Amino acid sequence: MQPELHYNTVFDAQQHFRLLLDSMSRPGKINTFPSSNILPPAGLNQAAALTGFALLNADTNYHITVQNSTDIADYLLVNTAAQQVDIAVADYIFLPENHDGRGLHEARVGTPVYPEDSATLIAAAQVISAVAMTDSLKITMNGPGVNGEATVWVKGINPDLLNYLKEQNSEYPLGIDLIITDGQNNVLCLPRSNRFTYTQTN
């Protein structure tokens, strides 16, 4: 597998890293990666791939829960030099659309001395929107970085994954951060410091 020729590992990575930082510091804000000509393998949308490119390097690692894990692992290795590891030690965990949270009980949540030593989930979704959608989850956030409340609609996220996140983040500062990406290159972050509720829209 060849590395992506349409990706600048310095300029693009820095730009995308700043975008992710902005999303993480401002929960509820939907950011969008600039259009890209990269061609990630099936099971990894462009926004998830670009997130990986920005966050992964030879000093970090990840775990993949999608079925097409071998192709994705080869792709990420060639483009980031990061290695796939067991979920119990992974820095980043890639999830497919509608993942229900099963198998994530071993993911790192940090320790009282090092709460930052935890995993970050990178979950694929179908659509992230600031406009109400039917057949989606309406997520309302509050806490640090949110002016009052912020509301977004996400299609392709399983409520059980959000329930898992709530449980893991109930003893903040321990917990897990969540990055959601969609097929339109949008990204949304739910950091562990944030509190959220959700309802199913019909």
Automatic annotation (TrEMBL):
This is Alpha-D-ribose 1-methylphosphonate 5-triphosphate synthase subunit PhnH. Signal peptide: none annotated. One of its GO terms (biological process) is organic phosphonate metabolic process.
